[in-house]
Amino acid sequence: MGKTIRLTAAQALVRYLGAQMNEAGEPFIAGVWAIFGHGNVAGLGEALHAVKDSLPTYRGHNEQTMAHCAIAYAKQVRRTRAMAVTSSIGPGATNMVTAAALAHVNRLPVLIIPGDVFATRGPDPVLQQIESFGDGTVSANDCFKPVSRYFDRISRPEHLLTALPRAFRTMTDPADCGPATLAFCQDVQAEAYDYPESFFEPRVWYQRRIRPDEGELARAVAAIKAAKRPVIVAGGGVHYSGATDALQNFVETHNIPITETQAGKSALAWDHPLNLGPVGVTGGEPANSVCGEADLVLAVGSRLQDFTTGSWGLFSNPEREMICLNTAAYDAEKHGAMPLQSDARIGLEELGAALQGYRADPVADTLKADWYGKVDKLTDAPDDGNALPTDMQVVGAVQRASNDDTVVMCAAGTMPGELHKLWKAPRPGAYHMEYGFSCMGYEIAGAMGIKMAQPDRDVICFTGDGTYMMANSEMATAAMMGVSFTVVITDNRGFGCINRLQMGTGGAEFNNLLDHAVHENPSAIDFAAHAAAMGATSVKVSSIAELEDALAKRGEIKGPYVVVIDTDPYPSTEYGGTWWEVAVPEVSIRPEVNEKRAAYELAIKERNTK
């Protein structure tokens, strides 16, 4: 059997974590986020303390947001590293379920280690235990099963011998990447076992690069060669594969324009002549017009969510073929697409080699100029100093203050749409958007994770007042740790994005903006004072000019820097976009709803007959 070493299961887990490396020779697990409680403080807490100099432990203020920080870290380093997150049992664990779902949707690695009940069941029911009346094996951690790529319950110390390699396989497999959850019974954490010393020898986890099947590749090449007006939809998989250079070479060689999803944005610099910009519901006219006419769509590393496809109404050419180049077979065959299961970089390289001089017909060279001629005016500073700024003007101010090292990030609300349309990303990795789950509350924690992943980058986080109110506690963590990033809070006094959607589907303004909510006392939150109370440097500005002045000072400030500006909740970029299926009530007393229902039924009919 070889030599063994006697360790508690918790000690064995952290020793294993520290021995797992990536291809660059870095520890794959960059650190552990922990909120201790009963269920993990005595076992994992003691084990983490012993290795704190080699495997750092960070203390968060909310289990969900510290997991968001870990996920943002992994996203920004293109899944080459990850973090672990541990909590107590009960509410500490279930707080992380939302974060697990976010990682699952976005195909991002995170190791989630919630404490669990006693495997012996001796003290049942313990504090915070969920009891199933019909299944004695169920605990609160079963909530993680549908939102984990791999789930295991560690109810024996030796379970780690199989569970940990499986968890790491999941987190490092491009086709299956996502959250791995190890529900760790609290008594087992403290139980000792004689582990093989070989289990803790350093191991390198290599990125598997799947090569295309010969038949799939040949069919894809034939379809592309037959196309006159092909277009590429670049998704997040382009970044995760490190395929941005391969993509640029491919499009330049074959004259095929690209469009970018939220996850794929910045795959090419915004001003590259073949980058037609954002696609879909939050897309621009160049990308959407070309996609509507395309006779072949090559989706690279995209899961083709409805915002990208316009609820599958965007690609409207009746002769259109779709090829999905994706590491996951599940994504490669969506909606009857021609599958090309492959790593993005390898797939583009082999496609390019097989196309042998093919070049697509050029697209109109005025498309981008016409688009920016319209939207650049929206981002200019306003002439009227008495009017509330728009979100577009805020985007413009931040753009003018940015540089090549800036990473702009967001997740939910108004700004994802405005940033997708308007932000000019100068290079890969300059745009970080969590729009797979569009999770309010990701922003501040995510900005901290980005800065921890790439300390030399200039990280600017956009968040609205509604999202800020949902999850702001990691601002205190960032202040405590001295993590520097900028947060621009656009205060439109409520959920402005959803208020516009409500109006757009014929509904009355109701329960979204604070002015429309039931209250005895008007809301008047001083966000700058609140951020300052948590340790941030903060300022409230009253104009776009003041915003630009405030942003110019961000390099002088250590720790989180918050700039608050009031904005108008109603305007949005009127140009671009495409249909998005939002079900409108079939029966209503409101004429506005009935009108929108008629338009909805017509759009469904048009989509279904294409």
Molecular structure report:
It is built from 24 helices and 22 strands. With 610 residues, the chain is of the alpha/beta class. It has three domains: 201 residues, Rossmann fold (3-Layer(aba) Sandwich); 152 residues, TPP-binding domain (Rossmann fold, 3-Layer(aba) Sandwich); 197 residues, 3-Layer(aba) Sandwich (Rossmann fold), CATH 3.40.50. Strands 4-3-5-6-8-7 form a six-stranded parallel beta sheet, sandwiched between helices. Strands 13-12-11-14-15-16 form a six-stranded parallel beta sheet, with helices on both faces. Helix 3 packs across helix 18, helix 8 crosses helix 14 and helix 10 packs parallel to helix 14.
**Arithmetic mean pLDDT:** 96
Count of discrete domains: 3
Q: So, CATH architecture of the largest domain? A: 3-Layer(aba) Sandwich
Total number of beta strands: 22
Rounded to the nearest angstrom, the radius of gyration is: 25 Å
CATH names the topology of the largest domain as Rossmann fold
CATH class of the largest domain equals: Alpha Beta
| Strand numbers in spatial order across the main sheet | 4-3-5-6-8-7
Please give the alpha-carbon distance between the first and last residues: 64 Å
The proportion of residues in beta strands is 15-25%
Query: Biggest sheet, in brief?
Result: 6 strands, parallel
The CATH superfamily of the largest domain is identified as Thiamin diphosphate (ThDP)-binding fold, Pyr/PP domains
Q: Helix share of residues? A: 25-40%
Please work out how many helical segments DSSP would assign. Answer: 24
Give the overall form.
Answer: globular
**Low-confidence residue ranges:** none
Based on helices, strands and strand pairing, what is the structural class? Answer: alpha/beta
Oligomer: single chain
